[in-house]
């Protein structure tokens, strides 16, 4: 086989029924063995490979499986784990999990967003002393596994330049990219070994080049592929650029001695023009990524073929693939019998996308294939009227600028301090309390019809009361109801909003064993009924202290859903914002004096290239303000952000105009505060003082230290004391002492300030 022809750049790995999640969690809990975990992985790989083969794919990827994360896998493959993990004397598997999850003496690697997706990777730590040797055997082992099934796979690796660009320096001022010449021989050795196993093609992913890159970074890309191509006994090299157009990297890769290039022709539809005009691709195979790897709509075959055919005169050969790995979509639409049949006909999950690739590949090659069903599905969606709601359209058309503007902060702050009467350094939490087994079981029983509505309501009320009493006992100032009724902070709202559909099995990996079921936003959005008011009102009825209402913001709801692609995202955001605005108003009417509107995904949706930033900030900030500007001055609006490097969005955070912003900060030792202040931010701020991503419980001295650092950047009158994020993934055994220490630190510093 000399050409790739048709392929997918990657595939889901958590298992169609989340088999890997269960095996991992059993292993971590000590209720499952290593052999059981490894066997589960083996079965999942076999299922995937044979399904892809049977579907008729030209080239089948291996290496798309992972026990936790593909970036961590790459660090392990090349022996680049920090010494704090390797010196523990654990088995290879436990060393790997120590890096992923941390152990008491060795905090985990940092976790952060994988480009603009809701997947999170582990950040390699590299320094001047880092050395690379090919130590991992997983790549070669998987090739042997596949070959035993009669399949010669195409191993997928993270490319060397993106790997280094994703790493963080373990020494200030060090640039991991300077390690390129150290790293390349290890990649070259792996290529040699793979060729010796009979591998014909290797895929190297370089998604970092979908973002703006400097000349030295582009030079590193040039150098990397000239060096790797020189390896005498090597498979053919396919480089994959995805999550957007390649910009200047297109020319660099076209002129490099690689054998094939995969391009994303979905994210930026104009990128096909640049590819078609690139003269240096004449000797290469180009894989036209025309099937969207990140969204769930069926591909329009004619539009896809127009794009792919435009490359026929540019490249030596043109194949068809997905725009990126299918890691970001669920397995199979066929597992969703309860979806509305008409909507289901418009959808393609991973399994269906493989069929789309095969079909388009045949059509491109001139085979006589029947495109009618694909055309009919797309036409049916285009002609459907259900997604349009005239009432929503009218309301949007009637909006004016003042609907997204509140009176000046100085005026609001006065009204709020009278209404709330909070102490200095008020303490609060971010919303969720631990989702206990009981709570999850009650929800599962309710969903299955084994628990009646009224029984479920009673169970949730009991949990809310328990959480309110706990917070009173701990001495927190602003309480929350704890979110026990929410399966997920986006899905919960989507299930109650018109315009969304929910799946039953549409799980997508978010990190490690954690998954989400992104809802499908298919039509105009509106709110038939209040969504959270009953729970908030009940919680407030139990206590004299203020209970914070808890909502998810429009940007985050979009970021964590599969969105419609038939109108600009900003238009959809405005509709979601109005639904949230109605909920905020109803909470206010119900006597809730503080409402938090979470926007943890504000950074995630930021376009990878600076050219798109201004337009994004425009609609994203407007949507948040539209959602939150309908309240009285005395109603305090909070927002919350986490899981990100905030640098580039600080001006936008300021522009949200929230009265109080809580922001993840514990792990970075409050660094973000100086940046916020530097960006002119002068409203309330609650930097996280408790890292909730780790089971570690900070003592009150540690919390006091963090608050003191914060007080150097923010005056006491504007500083709030809270954890980094919600507590839903933690256990009460950790949460109770941690919050006790948090309250103690606040009290001590209040005393000192007096
Ligand atoms: N959408 C989203 N994205 C996000 C976050 C987030 O909170 N939501 N947080 C950040 C980090 N990402 C995260 C993603 C997932 C989870 C998480 O905890 N996921 C849960 C599932 C949450 C859920 O939907 N739970 C449902 C369904 C739970 C379930 O699996 N039920 C069982 C049966 C229940 C039982 O008996 O235990 C089943 O269906 O088989 C519920 O509680 O109702 C998990 O993987 O375990 C946490 C953080 C960034 N991105
Ligand atoms: Zn958070």
TrEMBL record:
Domain Cobalamin-independent methionine synthase MetE C-terminal/archaeal: 425-747
Source organism of the structure: Amycolatopsis ultiminotia
Residues binding L-homocysteine: 430-432, 483, 598
Protein name: 5-methyltetrahydropteroyltriglutamate--homocysteine methyltransferase
InterPro entries in alphabetical order: Cbl-indep_Met_Synth_N, Cobalamin-indep_Met_synthase, Met_Synth_C/arc, UROD/MetE-like_sf
PANTHER family: 5-METHYLTETRAHYDROPTEROYLTRIGLUTAMATE--HOMOCYSTEINE METHYLTRANSFERASE
Binding site for 5-methyltetrahydropteroyltri-L-glutamate: 18-21, 113, 514-515, 560, 604
Record-listed E.C. numbers: 2.1.1.14
Recorded family membership: Belongs to the vitamin-B12 independent methionine synthase family.
Highest taxon of the lineage: Bacteria
Cofactor: Zn(2+)
Residues that hold Zn(2+) according to the record: 640, 642, 664, 725
Residues that coordinate or bind L-methionine: 430-432, 483, 598
Function: Catalyzes the transfer of a methyl group from 5-methyltetrahydrofolate to homocysteine resulting in methionine formation.
Gene: metE
Keywords annotated in UniProt: Amino-acid biosynthesis, Metal-binding, Methionine biosynthesis, Methyltransferase, Repeat, Transferase, Zinc
Catalytic activity: 5-methyltetrahydropteroyltri-L-glutamate + L-homocysteine = tetrahydropteroyltri-L-glutamate + L-methionine
Active-site residue numbers: 693
Pathway the protein acts in: Amino-acid biosynthesis; L-methionine biosynthesis via de novo pathway; L-methionine from L-homocysteine (MetE route): step 1/1
Top-level EC class: transferase
Domain Cobalamin-independent methionine synthase MetE N-terminal span(s) in chain numbering: 6-311
NCBIfam families in UniProt: met_syn_B12ind, PRK05222.1
